[in-house]
Amino acid sequence: MIDTPVPAPPPLPDLQTCRILVVDDNRVNRHLLLALLERDGFHAVDVAEDGIDALERLPAFRPDLILLDLMMPRMDGFEMCRRLRADPQWQDLPVLVQSSLNQAGDRARAFAAGATDYVTKPLNALELLARVRIHLQKRALLRDLTQFRQRTEAELAFARRMQERLMPGPDRCAAVEAATGITVNSHFAPSSELGGDFWGMRPDSHHPGRLHLYLVDFSGHGVGAALNTFRLHAILQQTDFGGTDNPADALAAINRRLCTLLPRGQFATMLIGMIDPEAGCLRYASAGSTKPMVWAPGDAAPTPGDSAGLPLGLVGQATYETRELPLPPGGRLFLYSDAAIEIPVGADVLDDTGLAALIAPHLHEPDGARFLSTLTAALHATGPIDDDLTALLFTRRS
Amino acid sequence: MDYAIEAKDHESIVRLRGRLTFNDHAKLRTLITEMQGSKGKRQILDLGNLEFVDSAGIGMLLIAHEEMGNADKQLVLRGAAGQVKRVLSVAQLGKIVTVED
Predict the structure, then answer these.
(1) Chain B residue closest in CA terms to A311
(2) SS3 category, B10
(3) Is ipTM > 0.90 here?
(4) CATH number assigned to the domain comprising residue B47
(5) Which of A82, A151, A280, A294 is the most exposed place for a label (fewest CB within 10 A)?
(6) Using the 8-state DSSP alphabet, how is residue A299 labeled?
């Protein structure tokens, strides 16, 4: 029989280097504890004679654990413990009380004052040392975990800023408006630090006035989905949207690239479209995206477009359909991720019909940013949103 | 999401109930293993009582489809209604998996 190697547990910090403060008014007890600890290998040990003495030694000595007597002159252990805990920097410091008070009430009072653990005198050396080691280990592990958490949070925040930079900012929107006469407003809110949504746009370099745009939603959310947005962004940077009048071809090409990259079970929905001011329409193709909605000045309700299509990354040979929606001067195009229609309403969800009803009163709100903020407020009032929410509004100049 | 399996010689019917989302990953993994181990060639997921499926849920159904293919079985999605039916049809999943009313 072959022994399977057991993975080694994570290395524990060198407990012997930990700093211990012994607080006891009895000189004999202090020496006894000091000797015990030193015999067990702890050499960074300091002693204090009472609560006041101990508090004064804290800032310079910075102990990893305190062995605390309760009955002391000047300031007793209860009061010292309370003062210690009032200072945030000592909130996690293990305080092991060692006392000859052995009534249940005394113990309860010590714990109420902030003690971590309690041993009664006369001391059992083995038990005391075992408890000291356990509390030092717990503290070291907690510290390790806290550091890991802080580092992860910082990295996620950084990654989030990177992801936000994938998407057009105010400068880009202003440039697009100058080039095409199309005002663009956007709302982007990942459900966790990172999201699986992203969008982009590019004026057509061959046909002035035309605007190419896309909205992508990767399955799932969080880090995995976010990494996929970076992948697809890189692919889209290399795609020449102006080369074809046919968004379906562009979508099929993107799908072929993505099929080789995505692990199974992961996919993306996408709408890719081109606003053609000359023809007064949006030409688009959809890989299972949400339904695009358009309306013209004077319309009472938005017109939804068909969005059926195989999501990206599932079938390499998938083909798509180019569809059209009218977009006259002054007309608007509204795109959104599925979080907007998956809000639970009773046993069902909001769905696109509910969303259309929600935006209908605000279709002609002149301020696009206000249109989106009114909408997101209405969505949050409808129910909890537990996925990445992106909403885009494109307004043609009238 | 909860499920109940009714296994017969030639097919199994698995009735899904509730919401199938990102959080059901482990449960669906277990279900797939159970389906792989059962005798029937046809593994029918009855979606009639499934209220909601999100994109991660669709991904898991696709994994189930692939795993059944690897085990020489056929996955059938049956009886989807409401939001689940709309999602299946927008994503044209009928082109990949057998979808029955």
Answers:
(1) B91
(2) coil
(3) no
(4) 3.30.750.24
(5) A151
(6) -
